[in-house]
Design a protein that fits this description.
single chain, mainly alpha, two-stranded antiparallel sheet, 66% helix
Length: 141
């Protein structure tokens, strides 16, 4: 029969978990994080589709056929704001998506709130996509 604990040890608080031991995964947090991430991916694909469509307006050349069956093309160089728009839009959305995925995964595995990182990424994607759209649209028009 085991001996009873002394009163000082019986009333002592439980020992904290060892530093190497992970906390359990919170399923509600992971589901919320996944939902926000999927919403971010949908928003990024929407803005990417918009930027990709505008890219064709930027890189086309105006060519006209002459009566002697020759073709004369006028090469139109897009302004620098178009390149900045593509870099800010595409690069910003890419960095926000990858950063949210990595940080949310690490947070979930360490027992922290992972939905915060995907909630931060969603407005960043919307702002980066809108900024890219405005810069590329002003270069076209």
């Amino acid at each position: 029969m085991p001996a009873t604990l002394p009163p000082a040890e019986a009333t002592a608080p439980a020992q904290p978990a060892p530093a190497g031991e992970r906390k359990s995964l919170n399923r509600k947090d992971i589901v919320l994080s996944l939902g926000l991430y999927l919403l971010s991916v949908i928003a990024a694909f929407g803005w990417a589709y918009d930027l990709f469509a505008k890219l064709f307006d930027l890189v086309h050349n105006r060519c006209t056929a002459k009566k002697d069956f020759s073709v004369q093309c006028i090469v139109i160089r897009p302004p620098a704001s178009a390149l900045w728009g593509l870099l800010i839009g595409g690069g910003g959305m890419f960095l926000a998506l990858v950063g949210a995925m990595v940080l949310a995964s690490v947070a979930a595995m360490t027992g922290r709130r992972s939905w915060i990182w995907t909630a931060i990424a969603l407005p960043l994607i919307l702002v980066a996509g809108a900024a890219g759209h405005v810069l590329v649209a002003t270069a076209i028009g």
